[in-house]
């Protein structure tokens, strides 16, 4: 069997690194890193990035929890729910959820009752049930969402950028760097949360033929 027709747990491992960090959860980080390293789908730069994220999460769990909430729970443009960037609270989101669940059922994957199916870690677990080639094709569907969230994480200099850079690498996309834009010799100021949310509203992302409305809702968390 060729490598492209094998399944990869790297997708699921990357998704788990986006879960809410609890002490029990961080204890399992070495196992996730071992899986990622062993499968060899990521390059050295991506491996270094996820290792640095793991070190950050394990160094101070309380601080990591506060950072997680401030990043993913309080900024709607950083939501880990894919359809929130596309459908918001519109009726189309409900049908999209049903369609996504049907895809999960094809690989005997049933989302937990306390989690929405468009949660990125759940979607990545689904990808780990597909051949690598099929997984990459499915991951390419929300690539514009992944790129948009990655850019916002870059603006915030978030260590979670490492996971999104890893996903972009799997799609053959260039990684984003933690850097400030220099204009006329002056470093531009970091964007405020209001600036990022305004960008989200003014630059809606397309996914599966839909465009994003102006409304959104908080997401649930795995690993809590």
TrEMBL record:
Keyword Manganese attached: no
InterPro entries, per the entry: DMSO/NO3_reduct_chaperone, NO3_reductase_chaperone_NarJ, TorD-like_sf
Pfam families per UniProt: Nitrate_red_del
Keyword Disulfide bond tagged: no
Cross-referenced Gene3D superfamilies: TorD-like (1.10.3480.10)
Ranges that cross the membrane: none
Alphabetical keyword list: Nitrate assimilation
Protein name, entry field: Nitrate reductase molybdenum cofactor assembly chaperone
Organism: Asticcacaulis aquaticus
